[in-house]
# Entry
Amino acid sequence: MAERAALEELVRLQGERVRGLKQQKASAEQIEEEVAKLLKLKAQLGPDEGKQKFVLKTPKGTRDYSPRQMAVREKVFDVIISCFKRHGAEVIDTPVFELKETLTGKYGEDSKLIYDLKDQGGELLSLRYDLTVPFARYLAMNKLTNIKRYHIAKVYRRDNPAMTRGRYREFYQCDFDIAGQFDPMIPDAECLKIMCEILSSLQIGDFLVKVNDRRILDGMFAICGVPDSKFRTICSSVDKLDKVSWEEVKNEMVGEKGLAPEVADRIGDYVQQHGGVSLVEQLLQDPELSQNKQALEGLGDLKLLFEYLILLGIADKISFDLSLARGLDYYTGVIYEAVLLQSPAQAGEEPLGVGSVAAGGRYDGLVGMFDPKGRKVPCVGLSIGVERIFSIVEQRLEAELLYKKNPKLLNQLQYCEEAGIPLVAIIGEQELKDGVIKLRSVASREEVDIRREDLVEEIKRRTSEPLCTC
Amino acid sequence: MAERAALEELVRLQGERVRGLKQQKASAEQIEEEVAKLLKLKAQLGPDEGKQKFVLKTPKGTRDYSPRQMAVREKVFDVIISCFKRHGAEVIDTPVFELKETLTGKYGEDSKLIYDLKDQGGELLSLRYDLTVPFARYLAMNKLTNIKRYHIAKVYRRDNPAMTRGRYREFYQCDFDIAGQFDPMIPDAECLKIMCEILSSLQIGDFLVKVNDRRILDGMFAICGVPDSKFRTICSSVDKLDKVSWEEVKNEMVGEKGLAPEVADRIGDYVQQHGGVSLVEQLLQDPELSQNKQALEGLGDLKLLFEYLILLGIADKISFDLSLARGLDYYTGVIYEAVLLQSPAQAGEEPLGVGSVAAGGRYDGLVGMFDPKGRKVPCVGLSIGVERIFSIVEQRLEALEEKVRTTETQVLVASAQKKLLEERLKLVSELWDAGIKAELLYKKNPKLLNQLQYCEEAGIPLVAIIGEQELKDGVIKLRSVASREEKHYRP
# Structure
């Protein structure tokens, strides 16, 4: 028994070591080595010996949906689905896992975040990481050359969820994609229209859609002097500009990724720019950028895109932002990301994004990777990040509930306790007749009747005391 | 290279050997041994060396749902969900995988069919096998003592799917359960009422609901002389009576499972019986069965159940069937299974079941397995096997040659001449902003004929045609695709 306890301790310590290495972003080989040691130790422990553990939790990074949360989810999906249907999309569904080979080589650095299934003697399987690669597989498998489809389902990523920021290991994606060879930028424009319609209908506040193009990025890196091999890694540094300052990004590029400082500066001149169609025009005149064939293509397409966005009535929500880089390898053309805006604290302050709620882009090469003859089917699409939206809508509904006609007093008091609200002003029929309001301290439960006209003063007095001993 | 080819051949042969052993139902240890050899061989092969394979299939036992199949699925779910809601159920959802420990020890022999996730250094996980164990975990975790909930989601079982019979490794379950300590048999009766309502509304043909009770089965086995240790395995033999003859079942019990022939015969006398509430009465008078306390409890509850079923108007659909055994270990009381009936070929022939479309029962001990204090929460529920229903509804729609639309678009915005893309974009945007379901072709200068054809194929009823002359006049031509009638409208 002592031997088992000692083994269990070794397993625990080794588990810590593995977690530590992952946090420090140690090399893949080192992590793999320590994980192998961990698995060997666990194997020595042997199978659990019937000791009934009371496992009352969902796996890390996952959660149940209570009836209340399901109601929120249903409201949000209704808005999203009716928008997809309004635009004539069909709906499909695919299995929760794919053959491991299907997902291999499609996600770049993110591949390490894929959940694999145990090899139980059959096919090697992995849980889907997104809905885009399954879509490409579906198109190739059914030899489809065009389709407009939406797909709402959960996807799986083994990253370290910061739960409070609404990120999970199992989460919903709502994808809409248009596959097919069409005249340029019309489907791309419709995707942006859909994004704007959905975010407006959900009424979760003001938002902004940033737009850029993979070819403009690559062209820009080329003329700034970034070596080809560093394109993707510089891309992911640049992508951080929405969260950190240019100084920090430059330091990462020069200090950690070995980029020459002059090259970094030249990048800086470009990527800190954002604007409307006038910026596109401006860059088309840029002496260096206009020499780069790729960048020219991208700029030309963005110009056409903006023309369509004006006709579709959404140009005021769109910002051409040269710092938008976006993680995934498979984008080939236009890329976009929608962020919610916090209201400015003071007039004149620029609104800060608080994280992306939707994103997408064009990916013309993905289906060809699945076709035996390499036949290409161009695709463009978007994905709505609903988990973030669920929590926003949930908060909003909680507030609403208290405005319902005959809410129970108990629920209101409970709400105060949970939300930390120190006082509650209770309106009652009798008190109304007497011209008073009952003011109650949530903490002490003491109640006192205050005359209506004195209420504000009393509340101010109590809440201005240090430590608010209301 | 030759070495690799030889290795690949060894892997293939070993894979065949493993599959063969599984088919012959060889012992678990033997299979495990050969699987281990297979894994070692595969490991020697090393990681795939960048040779791009064109994997154009879904994993074995799984499938995509095309837009047409989704339309069928949506119809079926609508019927089921409105029934659940009509009976006041709330809805929940749970993760697709649970901690492996949560599922361990809950499914008896079926445990080998569970999909495990690879140990990647974190928690050990398995894909859910049903929605009942997650429900019990949810109840215990949230310390709930009563709830009426439904849950519709996919579950995962690694068995050998006979695809033509509509069985898959990934498939939907629609579960409805009532948890809580209530007066006997009322919730149980409501579950049967729900099952009947759903199967009637779906209009998939006549059906029959077989009912039995775990306590009657166990009591019956006891008085027939079945050793305790053989209860579960004899149970699963008896369960086959809906598919094979009594002779075959008896042979399996005596020949393969070592049951004494006299015991088998005694079982045979009971299990070939089925009927209505009169059979319950009859068995309550049975000199041997009525001596067994468990059987008496079960029979008493079934008698009460039938009283309620008569009041709920569904007694004519229910058959008390002593051969109904049902696989899962966690049932503790009433169990039931609904089967579709083929129409008899000739008058007087008895309808044959063609497989179960719904099932359920009472399971009072499951939540207690999750509670640290062992607190019990009695539960009763049902599960609708929708995959079978999907294929039936699909066939029915094909037979009726009903055109199932896969989109809901109301109007296509079209242009009669070239260079009208701007106008189309403006108009379609107006329609979308007004909540109208509209589309346009992604062509700058599409031919009118192609646009009309698109409407016909997709079933879009209206087309709004922008033309140069009409633009000058300030109108749009609205045309019915079916009747070809046209009218002019101001935008």
Summary: Chain A touches chain B through 82 residues (CB under 8 Å). The CA atoms of residues 438 and 449 of chain A lie 4 Å apart. Chain A has a mean pLDDT of 87.
